[in-house]
Amino acid sequence: LSAGKYITASCHISNNSVYRNGVLLFSNAGADVSAFLHSVYTYFQINYSRFYKMDGLSKLGWLTSEILLQNLLQKDQYKPEDIGIVLSNTNASLDTDQKYLVSAKDIASPSIFVYTLPNIVTGEICIRNQFKGEGSFFLFEDFDPEFIKTYVSDLLDNDVLQACICGWIELLEDEYKAVLYLVEKKSNSESISFTTDNMLAIFENKSLIK
Amino acid sequence: MTRNVFIVANNIVSPLGNTTEENFTQLTHGISGITKHYNAAFAPESFYASLFANGNDLITASDPQHTKFEQLLITSVEKALSWCTVNAADQKTALIISSTKGNVSLLETEQNNIALQKRISLPASAKLVADHFGFAADPITISNACISGIMALLTGMRLIRSGQYENAVVTGADVISKFVLSGFQSFQAISPQPCKPFDKNRSGISLGEGAGTVILSANPSSANDIKVMSGAISNDANHISAPSRTGKELSYAIKQSMDAAHLTATGIDFISAHGTATIYNDEMEAKAITLSNLQNVPVNSLKSYYGHTLGAAGLIESIISVQSLKENLFIPTLGFEETGVPDEINVPVKLLNGNFNNCLKIASGFGGCNAAMIFSKQ
């Protein structure tokens, strides 16, 4: 039997705007992707020098996880191995793949090459938060909330994980979108049911059904 | 009651052969696919790798619709399907594809534009492979560094256990081009000789290309089918390109897998390691094996036969391990002479005969990821 599962927080970043639990927190119209991501880092007063080493996809995904988890996840409730990350997108690390090949015409750079894998962002989030549970990166033509919901529910129901950060992180040249959900087995005053409808509403920034 | 998941067919397409049996026979004779190559489009200097020969009849210009990467997947899936009754068109048959870099080499040879970007995306390749065989279910693609192949098998096992599917065709491939070679060279991780896993004189990776396919089913095809018992994944949370200093996190994945399979250390008959032959990977694995109390269990790395086949490695190495279980014949690690890891583990240099029932497959990759999986006889 499957126990209840709840989206206890969400963070959506697209169109130069940052939403947490459906509330607009920050917007910086007109900035290009790189300037926008830096303005998010500054606005939320995050201090983490590794941020400057990251590629675009990792910056985007890492910032989304930071805002998702702000003052929220009581990490001491969980063991490091109990928290996992299930991510997805269409283009894997193509944005950095392109940059790497340009750089490799002169001298190939190991610091760029290491980011030519989509799951490096998982590693960045794990390093920051000391999460040691299962992480996986799936590729789909479009966001597939049904697959993510079913897969993450299975991990939680079978006690592979007790909490999971899941969703979509895509960045290719000027196009980007990141939507992450924190899914737990315990509800709170702001949580909503972990359903594909709720995932889609957050993905598309529509009003939520409690 | 937990549903059993059986391996009803498998295939390896590599420079060593186009069937699992051909590949296994080559390994029992100590034959490696790694040779010296010179290709100015890949690198200014010669390098050691296991690559398909130009003009290999598996990869033909007569199929312009599919890239070399996709032709490898298609060839391997076709051969595996021919060995079993699993039907691709059945809504209850999943297709799971694993690759680290897929068609990225197109960036080296084609004009980059939006159409090319779409062509390079792994879901585009997945759709072409799915359409070729008429899969009814939407394909699932995994790209999670060097543990992609094991993760794909684990995903297939779970999709069958949960009852969502009856069968899963799990396939993976990677091809070598300037992209991957120059990247590992930039890390000074490419060995100037064929790689020597766990050896004192090891000096890095040899790369390789190939494809592997495993067909999983809830319905056994024979009493000889090997079962996928369990698997687990962990993250080091330590460094994006260097492995854990302690091996604790890989050891955690091993423990989770052994517990789920109701096995203790004495129940594991052999281990198929990742064994890339970099200093740090092999040390970390030896630590994890020792932490798991498996230091006396025979361990091999197949990287000195295949090179590091990236997204295919977990599949190819699992298939050889499954064949070892079936034939009760353990493959030694080519190139290994004298132990070069601080925690002494058991790396045989000769073929071992035995009565093998359970084996452990492990892997680790960039991003701090680790994976473990257990295969058993019925």
C-alpha geometry of chain B: globular
Q: Oligomerization state of this entry?
A: heterodimer
Number of strands of chain A: 8
**Looking across the biggest beta sheet of chain B, what order are the strands in?**
5-4-6-8-1-9-15-14-10-11
Task: Name the helicity range of chain A.
Answer: 25-40%
Average of per-residue pLDDT values of chain B:
96
- Computed Rg of chain B: 19 Å
Largest sheet of chain B: 10 strands, mixed
Overall morphology of chain A:
globular
Low-confidence sequence ranges of chain B: none
SSE string of chain B, helices as H and strands as E: EHEEHEHHHEHEHEEEHEHEHHEEEE
Number of helical stretches of at least 4 residues of chain B: 11
Succession of helices and strands of chain A: EEEHHEHHHEHEEEH
Which regions of chain A are unreliable across 5 or more consecutive residues at pLDDT < 50? none
Distance between the termini of chain B: 16 Å
Average pLDDT figure of chain A = 94
Structural category of chain A is alpha+beta
Largest sheet of chain A: 8 strands, mixed
From the N-terminal CA to the C-terminal CA of chain A, the straight-line distance is: 23 Å
Which descriptors would you attach to this protein?
heterodimer, A: 210 residues, alpha+beta, eight-stranded mixed sheet, 25% strand, globular, B: 378 residues, alpha/beta, ten-stranded mixed sheet, three-stranded mixed sheet, 15 strands, 30% helix, 20% strand
Structure characterization notes:
The complex is a heterodimer of chains A (210) and B (378). By secondary structure, chain A is of the alpha+beta class. Chain A has helices at 33-43, 56-69, 94-104, 110-113, 120-129, 145-157, 196-203, and strands spanning 6-14, 17-20, 23-27, 83-89, 135-139, 163-172, 175-184, 192-193. In chain A, strands 1, 2, 3, 4, 5, 6, 7 and 8 form an eight-stranded mixed sheet that branches. The longest helix of chain A is centred in the first third of the chain and has 14 residues, at 56-69. The model of chain A has no long low-confidence stretch (mean pLDDT 94). Chain B has helices spanning 20-28, 68-81, 106-109, 114-120, 122-133, 148-161, 178-186, 248-260, 279-291, 303-306, 313-327, and strands at residues 6-13, 35-37, 47-50, 93-98, 140-142, 167-174, 207-208, 210-217, 226-235, 270-272, 299-300, 329-330, 352-353, 358-365, 369-376. Chain B is globular. Chain B is α/β, with parallel strands linked by helices and 378 residues long. Chain B starts with 5 loop residues before the first strand and ends with a strand. Chain B has a ten-stranded mixed sheet with strand order 5-4-6-8-1-9-15-14-10-11, with helices on both faces. In chain B, strands 2-3-7 form a three-stranded mixed sheet. In chain B, strands 12-13 form a two-stranded antiparallel sheet. In chain B, strand 14 and strand 15 form a beta hairpin. The longest helix of chain B is centred in the C-terminal third of the chain and has 15 residues, at 313-327. Chains A and B meet through helix 3, helix 5, strand 5 and helix 6 of A and helix 5, strand 5, helix 6, helix 7 and strand 9 of B. Strand 5 (135-139) of chain A pairs antiparallel with strand 5 of chain B, so a sheet runs across the interface.
